[in-house]
TrEMBL record:
Record GO biological process: methylation
SUPFAM superfamilies: S-adenosyl-L-methionine-dependent methyltransferases
Leader sequence residues: none
CDD domains: AdoMet_MTases
Keyword set includes Transit peptide: no
Record organism: Roseateles flavus
Name of the featured protein: Class I SAM-dependent methyltransferase
Length: 212
C-alpha cells in the first residue's frame, strides 16, 4: 500500500478522535480569512483532503455564499464533514486526482494535506491545482514544517504509524519552486502555530498563491 493510501486508512480509523481534537481549532482563522475575503460572490471552492470539514465550516461561516465541495480519501472523514457542514458537498476522493475541468475553481484549499504526499505527488498536486483554477483563482496550502530529509514514518501517541513528508517553502524542489513552475504567483506566506495537543510539535506554515 502506498504511503498516502495508508495514511488515509489510519485517518479513517481515527476520524472521530481527530474531529474531537481539531474541529474547533481557531489557530489558523487569520490565514483562512485571507483566502475567503477576496473571493468573488458565489465562488466555487474545492477543499482537498477536507478531513471532518474543519476548514469548510469556517469558510462558510464567513462566506455562506460559497459553493464548496470537499473531498477526502477517508470515508469516515467524509461522513463527519457531511454532518458538521450540511451547507457544503462532500465526496470520497483522492486529492491526487482533483475533480473538475480546467478553470473550474475560484479557490482550492489543501490544509495539512501535503504532509501525506511524497514530493512527486505534492508537485503533481500543485500543477493540477493550477490548471483547475480560474484566472485570478487562489490556492491555499498549509503543511507541517521540517527538513525534507527528516521525512519518514511517524508514530502517534496511540501508536498508529503514518509516513510524513516535510516540504520546504524555498529553494530547489520546494513548494515555492513548484508554484512558480505551475505559473502561480505567491501572495502571502507565514509560519503557523502548532496545536498544543498535536502528537508531534512541528514548525508549520501556510501560503496563498494566485493564478494570473
Amino acid at each position: 500500500m502506498d504511503p498516502s493510501a495508508r495514511s488515509a486508512q489510519v485517518f479513517d480509523q481515527l476520524a472521530d478522535l481527530y474531529q474531537s481534537k481539531y474541529m474547533d481549532l481557531d489557530l489558523y482563522d487569520e490565514s483562512y480569512a485571507l483566502l475567503a475575503a477576496p473571493l468573488p460572490p458565489h465562488a466555487c471552492v474545492l477543499d482537498a483532503a477536507c478531513g471532518p470539514g474543519t476548514v469548510a465550516r469556517r469558510l462558510l461561516a464567513w462566506r455562506p455564499d460559497l459553493q464548496l465541495l470537499g473531498v477526502d480519501l477517508a470515508p469516515r472523514m467524509v461522513e463527519l464533514a457531511r454532518a458538521a457542514v450540511p451547507a457544503a458537498r462532500f465526496e470520497v476522493g483522492d486529492c491526487r486526482q482533483l475533480p473538475g475541468e480546467d478553470g473550474r475553481w475560484d479557490a482550492i484549499v489543501c490544509a495539512f494535506g501535503l504532509p501525506y504526499l511524497d514530493p512527486t505527488g505534492a508537485q503533481a498536486f500543485v500543477a493540477r491545482a493550477a490548471r483547475l483554477l480560474a484566472p485570478g483563482g487562489l490556492l491555499y496550502l498549509s503543511t507541517q514544517g521540517g527538513r525534507p530529509e527528516d521525512s519518514g514514518p511517524q508514530r502517534s501517541s496511540r501508536g498508529d504509524v503514518v509516513h510524513v513528508f516535510f516540504h520546504a517553502m524555498e529553494g530547489p524542489g520546494s513548494v515555492g519552486a513548484w508554484l512558480a513552475e505551475a505559473g502561480l504567483v505567491l501572495q502571502s506566506q507565514a509560519p503557523l502555530p502548532c496545536p498544543a495537543n498535536a502528537s508531534v510539535q512541528t514548525a508549520d506554515w501556510y501560503c496563498i498563491a494566485r493564478k494570473p
